[in-house]
Amino acid sequence: MVISLSKLIRIPSPCCGLERSPYRSGFRNPFFSKASIKIKIFKGRYKRQCNEYNVQKEREGKETHMASVDYRAILEEIRRGRGALEVLESILPGYRGYKEREIRRETDRIVRDILYGKLNKAKDSVRTAYFSIVERGLSNLYGDMNRLNAVMDRVSERIHHAEYGYAGFFDAIKVKEEALEKMLSFDVNLLKTVQEIEDAGQKLQAAGSTDPPASIKEKLDSLLSSLRELEVTFNDRKNAILGLP
Question: Which residues contact 201 (CB under 8 A, 6 or more apart)?
């Protein structure tokens, strides 16, 4: 058997830096080969980033819609005798309760997204009020405003990034009716309180530019009290999910 030397050795070609492939006829340019690979990688990254951006914008759109709903309507409907689950399903897009195992985590995420969106709106109001207070030189309120901002940041981030780890509630095939009713009660109370927080933030924003310091302090304390109530209720709900007393 005779083996050609040209089959074993890559022979440089005099044609514009092109190389003859030892495995097939014709020429190839190493530069264009590497460039095409880089272009493919870039296209892949660009497509992935576009998909991630679209998903994020879609989710932000849903959060904005949920945050724009006035959740006082929930309490009004419940007072009229309608069941909590029926009211929540009719008012909250995508809310389906916790009875089915497959949708429990999604329902939890919907509730937390609503709370986070409402808190962000309240934070915007507080920020505007703070600027007004600074412009008026009401330095005796600076400490209270900083404390309010710190609590608001802590509560909103704790809700937004809640971690449950392994929670039997999410994975149980069947959950007792008592536990389901308890979760619905938590959700109703959370939505009621976060609506109060949003309303209190708007009142504080309006008061920041015109009201006397004592009136601003009163509205600030009311908002801080509602925030702490929301935090306590959310912690109780989280403990119920984790099966803690």
Answer: 121, 122, 123, 124, 125, 126, 129, 223
Domain ranges of the chain: 29-67, 72-159+172-242
pLDDT digits (tens, 9 = 90+) for 198-243: 999 999 999 999 999 999 999 999 999 999 999 999 999 988 888 7
The confidence band for 68, taking pLDDT boundaries of 50, 70 and 90, is low
Phi-psi region of 130 (alpha: psi -120 to 50; beta: other; left: phi over 0): alpha
**Eight-class DSSP state of 137:** T
Longest dimension (CA), the chain: 103
Per residue in 184-198, pLDDT (tens digit) is: 999 999 999 999 999
How distant is the alpha carbon of residue 241 from its chain centre?
Answer: 19
What Å distances lie between residue 136 and 50, 141, 222, CA to CA? Answer: 45, 11, 21
Phi, psi of 27 (to 5 degrees): -120, 155
Higher pLDDT, 233 or 10: 233
State residue 189 phi and psi, 5-degree precision: -65, -40
Helix (H, G, I), strand (E, B) or coil at 3: coil
Distance in angstroms (rounded) separating the CA atoms of residues 232 and 238: 10
Would you list the DSSP string of 63-97?
HHHHHTS-THHHHHHHHTT--HHHHHHHHSTT---
Of 188, 201, 209, residue with least CA distance to 156:
201
Whether 97 contacts 85, CB under 8 Å: yes
